Amino acid sequence: MVVLNKIYTRTGDSGATALGNGARVAKHSARVEAYGTSDELNCFVGVARLEATGETDDALSRIQNDLFDLGADLCRPDMEADKDAEYPPLRMTAEQVDRLEAEIDIMNAELDPLRSFILPGGTTLAAQLHVCRTVARRAERLAVLLSEQETINPVAVKYLNRLSDWFFVAARMANNGGKDDVLWVPGANR
Prior knowledge:
- The chain is mainly alpha-helical.
- The protein has helices at 30-49, 54-74, 94-108, 124-149, 154-174, and strands spanning 16-18, 24-26, 118-119, 182-183.
- Helix content is 54%, strand content 5%.
- The strands form 2 sheets. The chain has a two-stranded antiparallel sheet. Strands 3-4 form a two-stranded antiparallel ribbon.
- α1 runs antiparallel to α2 (54-74).
- The radius of gyration is 18 Å and the shape is elongated.
- The model has no long low-confidence stretch (mean pLDDT 91).
């Protein structure tokens, strides 16, 4: 359980922050960049939820919770120490990736195949989901960079990779099942 009685602590005033295991690192470290970007993504998902309804809103709610799980995973280094931790650290699981894949397959079955790249836009929700897609890709790139420097849970990278695909397909669904996708016309303004 998390209890936050005081929001500011002044412990980060020097440019360092605490990780999930208590270690202090620079706020610009690869690990903080990775989980900070997943937090940024969560905020954009919250904005998208302002337009979402029904199953899409339900799915986005699950994704927001997953993104907190992802942040908890990424902020906790040293997976080898997990077995000795007082409380087992929260780690992303293959089941979370599998759920995204199943949801992608269900949505994609309702869409016509793409015959062109699409431009971000269409409905407000679709445009917001495209922003989520690109921020998820950035979070993935940062997690991959972190994985080249330190050991991380490989499922975290898989989750982000699948999540950006989920946002792409969900954006098409938000565009009237793909019928209102904005198609790229190569060289249209030459």
